[in-house]
Amino acid sequence: MLKKLIVKNFAIIEDITLEFNKGMTVITGQTGAGKSLIIDTISLLLGARADSDMIRYNENEAYICGIFDYNLIYEDIFNNNNIKIDDEVKVERIITNNKNTIKINNTSVSLNILKQIAIYLANLHIQNDTFKLFNQDTYIDLLDPKDDDTFNNLLNSYTKSLYDYNLKLDLYNKIKKSQNELNNKLEYLEFEHKEISSLNLYLNIDKELEEDINKLSNFDKISYNLNLSKDKIDGEYSAIDNIYDAAMALDNLKSFSNDYLDYSTKLLDVYYIAKEIKDNIAYEIDNLDYDEEELNNKTELMLEIDKLKAKYKMSVEELIEYDKKISLDIQMATNYEETLNNAKEDVIKYYDILIKKAIKLSDYRKNIAKKLEKGIIKECNDLDLENALFEVKFSEFNNNDPFDKSIFYPNGIDKIDFYVSFNKGEPTKPLYKVASGGEASRLMLAFKSYFSSKDNVGLLIFDEIDSGVSGITAMHIAKKMYEISKHIQLICITHLASVAAIGDNHKFISKEEKDNRTYTRVKDLSYDERVEEIALMISGDKLSIYAIENAKALLNNK
């Protein structure tokens, strides 16, 4: 849940601090006083993009800070990004003319990391969000679960197979398209392939040749110093034997002091290391051989490799990969039918794999849709839509052509539509054709209510989700929001008296003009102040006894 919001120099807000409690908090106030600005600041804490135009006039920076409760679900994200884990989550946005800074628990993070955490901090509904219900492209996002491991595994498996299938299909199409082009280039490709493959390249061949040439070029120096080293270690007065004798002499004194034993042990270590080095030097000397022809051949090969690297402007590794590509192109040009058939078989094979995974994902999604249908109908019944019917309809797809990738989308093969009916005896029709503004608002609230019990967010925020309704319907909406607030913190901007009255806490936003500047003010209302504010929402500008009594009744009967 959100515990505290601090805003400085944001639009007409100079400096305010809002503290929030559990349950349902309603925000009311004058038009243009800054209610929507509060939503904008919370949006920034949830990952909305910042703009320097948001900075209060004549100020250098805007500052927004939110203090949220910590949830164990953040642990992996915090650990992976070296964010300090504490009892609270402190999110800060600092907006200047030059840059925007984001901090979580005093650690600077990217906007992407903030968004990863924000999906668990809060779910924000702004006024235009209701129109998502009229946009079919958003339905899959509304339907798909966010924290369902089975679903995520199915989606990841489908995504990988889609990637593999697209690679095979692209290769097949490339082969079909490039036959004539490759035939024209065949002679040149064969020349390049012969030129590169004749050198029998392998990784690091140039480095190995350089080392071998260096050794052969310095044969006399290497031979002299190896033999000198061997003589010094194992000559007439063997240094190794002397070390061993010294170790044994000290070993004879070990009964007198542990120091002598320690010295003896360390000298024996030196002896065995020196002996190993001596044996290796002897092996090097025995195998040391100068071959002028080998030196010339390797020097010549090194020159050829260097010329090839300069000509193609590639490293040895890049030349090897380029030769593989040339070989494939030559194969495609000289064995076109066979290459095309092989590519065709690959497309069909990967298509069959992809279709199976796509259908499996679709079947799982359809089970989720059935649960959603039942849940939304139940929520609608609580919102004065007792005759509501709701269906998730899946479009049919044609899977007869392995070379048609148009049926595959990044999230599967499903295109869905929401069908509703709000009147008894009427068949369901596409939502965008049926729902009025008030019905759409209630339907969106039904969605939010349904998903609030399944998502791991700690806060729901509604910016006038109750627009377009009144009377008994407004009361149903108020009760639904209050019911949601029993298990999740809820903040609501409203113009409805019935919604304002049902909240546990009430904040009033006003604006003040002082010294030719406008300031936003926020006040937590007492019971008597709530009565007055709700009465004004009922009657308009002038208070009446009737409005006051109605306001008290609303407050006392929630």
What are the key terms here?
558 residues; alpha/beta; Rossmann fold; six-stranded antiparallel beta sheet; six-stranded mixed beta sheet; 18 helices; 15 strands; 16% strand; extended
Give a description of the structure.
α5 (149-197) packs antiparallel against α12 (336-381), α6 runs antiparallel to α10 and α14 packs parallel to α15 (471-484). Helices cover 55% and strands 16% of the residues. The protein is α/β, with parallel strands linked by helices and 558 residues long. The protein has 18 helices and 15 strands. A 6-stranded antiparallel β-sheet has the order 2-1-4-5-6-7, with helices on one face. Strands 8-12-13-3-14-15 form a 6-stranded mixed β-sheet. The two termini are 23 Å apart. The longest helix is centred in the N-terminal third of the chain and has 49 residues, at 149-197. Among the domains are: 1-122 and 457-525, 3-Layer(aba) Sandwich (Rossmann fold); 199-334, no CATH class.
Give the helix/strand layout.
Layout: E1 2-10, E2 13-19, E3 24-29, H1 35-45, E4 61-69, H2 75-80, E5 88-96, E6 100-104, E7 107-108, H3 111-121, E8 123-125, H4 139-143, H5 149-197, H6 205-217, H7 219-234, H8 239-251, H9 258-287, H10 292-312, H11 316-334, H12 336-381, E9 389-394, E10 416-421, E11 429-430, H13 431-434, H14 437-452, E12 459-463, H15 471-484, E13 489-493, H16 497-502, E14 505-514, E15 517-524, H17 527-539, H18 545-556
Parallel strand pairs: 3-13, 3-14, 8-12, 12-13
Antiparallel strand pairs: 1-2, 1-4, 4-5, 5-6, 6-7, 9-10, 10-11, 14-15
Helix pairs in contact: 5-11, 5-12, 6-10, 7-9, 8-9, 11-12, 12-14, 14-15, 17-18
